[in-house]
Amino acid sequence: MANKIREATHAGSWYTSSGTKLASELSQNLSKVTPLPELDYHPPVSDAKAIIAPHAGYSYSGPAAAWSYAAVPTEKTKRIFLLGPSHHAYLLGVALSRFESYETPVGDIPLDLSVIADLRKTGVFSDMKASVDEEEHSLEMHLPYIRHIFKGRDDLKLVPILVGHPDKTTTKKLSQVLGKYWDDEETFFVISSDFCHWGARFSCTPYYPNAPHPPNPVPPVPYHINPASFTPPDLVKRFSAADANPQVPIWKSIEYMDHEGMELLRRPGEAGAVEKWEAYLDETKNTICGRNPITVLLNLVQHVYKDKAQKPQFTFVRYEQSSKCLNGRDSSVSYVSGVLRIPK
Q1: Terminal CA-CA length for the chain
Q2: CA atoms of 89 and 129, how far apart (whole Å)
Q3: Cβ-count burial of 96 within 10 angstroms (0-12 exposed, 13-18 middle, 19+ buried)?
Q4: Cα-atom radius of gyration of the chain, to the nearest Å?
Q5: pTM across the whole model
Q6: Which PANTHER family did the record assign (predicted)?
Q7: pLDDT per position as a tens digit, 151-206
Q8: What 8-state DSSP symbol labels residue 100?
């Protein structure tokens, strides 16, 4: 390629292009992350192997993403596999970058060209066009955080993977290919995903008129015992004013639906985890844009731990919404930070 460095195309719009300002913003976000003793969350998390983190503009999702990135055990990590969904180009399977490094305002990140070459030989992956690579924000929005938490480290390398719509055969092969890297203690996985995109502009307006408070609320959602007056929720696929329950504003319904999804992800190694996750997505039509990278992770965990008694678990440490929807004209996007911890 003529240019071997992927340009930070969203700098100056989705986040500041000033390296000094960006480093300060990231540091401030990370400084606000506090331990959560009730979740045994004391960052950095030594037994963490993967995170789920959002990828919206930093003014929206940057503070939430910090809760995932604070957990990364940077001292022992030298390679990051970054899996993000394809928003702009239809992709049947999974694709690799052809660049040699990725630019960020706080420093470039070299790609692990040796590993990428080995992955390419498996025949499982296609190659991203340069234009697709630079247009995609699901990968780029993680790069400044990755570079920042590994600042001063010249031994960090990145393996970006764009995830389209791999079929079950491709997903099975992908699990086998990625399995050996999962077993490498110096390799860490980042899964890029926002959660519910609610609103007519997203063609997504499901509503639970009788949504209870989430059974395992993710901070800062408050914990309290579910009111006895709530009945098991029935889902309305398209919200209308006639369906509205004054006791359950739309944002509370979204909160419950997102927590449903997180609850299914807590134990990704258990039998049936993939099927339950896919059934949930099919039933709710929740617009979790990183659903396919998350499904890749679930299948990978199923492959690695299928014959092991001890299974990894997700700890979800942050849940936020960009705004609180009150009527059918409103819209919002949800942001989730989760940490996958492997058995000690």
Answers
A1: 43
A2: 10
A3: buried
A4: 20
A5: 0.96
A6: PROTEIN MEMO1
A7: 999 999 999 999 999 999 999 999 999 999 999 999 999 999 999 999 999 999 99
A8: S
